[in-house]
Amino acid sequence: MPTNVIMPQMGESIVEGTVTKWIKKVGDRVERDEPLFEISTDKVDAEIPSPASGTLAKILVKENETVGVNTVVAVIDGEGVEKPAMAESVQTAKPAATAAAPTAPRPAPPAPAVARLSGKVRSSPLVRRIAREHSVDLALVPASGLGGRVSKKDILSYVAQAGPAAASPVAPAAPQVSPTPAAPRMVFTGPIETVAMTPMRRQIAEHMILSEHTSARVTTVFEVEMSRVSHLRTKSAAEFERRNGLKLTYTPFFVRAAVEAIKEFPIFNSSVEGTNIIYRRDVNIGIAVALETGLIVPVIKSADEKNFLGLARAVQDLAERARTKRLSVDDVQGGTFTITNPGVFGSLFGTPIINQPQVAILGVGIIEKRAVVRHDAIAIRPMVYLALTFDHRIIDGAVADQFMSRIKAVVENWDEPVL
């Protein structure tokens, strides 16, 4: 029975994708879950597996063509077998080589190891990018994919097992995003210039308008003292990086505080469907990451089950992969609550828009020293404004303020060790 292959949903705000490469050709035999084609958006590059076993009967979308999600891009004939015509296509694919030496016998196919040492390694652009970043020769990576193909799992496993020698990237870590990543300088040739929105910008615009038309938004702002967290971070930063190989940032502290508050107020981990409230058991925290062309929200899955180090690793890993377009489809799906941090660009606070279908989003402002009153005296303390935008359809102001009070209490009375 024929099976339709569709363009998958690449995240909650993605409405289209581009087919960058067909790994299989018409007439090729394909197994279920074997890589079939590669897709790309401004957010995610990914290999898409075959939904069924059979023969690739039709390719309906060409390489570098962009189509909407759920569009049928190919058809797999589940009852088909490998066709004899395949041999003919291979024969006609190399007419020049055959004509150049008509009397010479065709050499036997080289063994996989020989072919790979000569540089003919079968892999996807995503795998090759990871290899370049870690100075890995793909010819040395054991391949588990069909036909000797090096999969993403293969390269990541090799990097993890090879240790520092193979894991040292050839390029420096991604730099911090500039304060104006999405504001390119314009070159005018007349009174005005008209520039089409990028696909990513169109998707963000549609998603934001949808949110404005869906939720009854209210924002509440709390001022939180960061003395305890700031002192702990300063004292532990060097040892934390030495032990774990990553910098100790403020973000994991806010993630932990949000998780603790969500445990007490599960309404913040829900969504609305008609007249029903859908509560989610897993706490999946989305972390907004600024890119040169817009914003992406990768998700820390089951954040409530991770310790502080696990959260810190997840935050850094997702941010780095977001900026280098190495996120998987799963990385940008399933979020239940979002944290955004405009404070890194100097903002005191903002009124963030809810990331549908979620019901709340927490905005973190700049952390800076301010004059505050403590025990009837003026003191200098590191302070931050936290802004919570929530859906007033199901969350009342009193509940929102109790939720924020819990976050404030966790941060100001931090007692979880980071080492």
Apparent shape: globular
Mean pLDDT: 82
How many extended strands? Answer: 19
* Quaternary: single chain
The overall number of domains is 3
- The CATH architecture of the largest domain can be named as 2-Layer Sandwich
CATH topology of the largest domain: Chloramphenicol Acetyltransferase
Please give the count of helices. Answer: 11
Radius of gyration computed on alpha carbons: 26 Å
Let me know the CATH homologous superfamily of the largest domain: Chloramphenicol acetyltransferase-like domain
Which CATH class of the largest domain? Alpha Beta
Topology:
Elements: E1 2-6, E2 16-22, E3 29-30, E4 35-40, E5 45-49, E6 54-59, E7 65-68, E8 72-77, H1 85-92, H2 95-100, H3 112-117, H4 125-133, H5 152-162, H6 164-167, H7 199-214, E9 217-225, H8 227-244, H9 251-264, E10 270-273, E11 276-279, E12 285-287, E13 289-291, E14 294-296, E15 299-300, H10 308-323, E16 337-340, E17 360-364, E18 368-374, E19 377-391, H11 397-412
Parallel strand pairs: 12-16, 16-17
Antiparallel strand pairs: 1-8, 2-4, 2-7, 3-6, 4-5, 6-8, 9-19, 10-11, 12-15, 13-14, 17-19, 18-19
Helix pairs in contact: 9-10, 9-11
Describe the 3D structure.
By secondary structure, the chain is α+β, with helices and mostly antiparallel strands. It folds into three domains: 1-107, RNA polymerase II/Efflux pump adaptor protein, barrel-sandwich hybrid domain (OB fold (Dihydrolipoamide Acetyltransferase, E2P)), CATH 2.40.50; 111-171, Dihydrolipoamide Transferase; 201-412, 2-Layer Sandwich (Chloramphenicol Acetyltransferase), CATH 3.30.559.10. Helix content is 30%, strand content 24%. It is built from eleven helices and 19 strands. Strands 9, 12, 15, 16, 17, 18 and 19 form a seven-stranded mixed sheet that branches. Strand 4 and strand 5 (45-49) form a beta hairpin. Helix 9 crosses helix 11 (397-412). The protein starts with a strand and ends in a 7-residue tail after the last helix. The model is unreliable at 80-119 and 164-180 (pLDDT under 50).
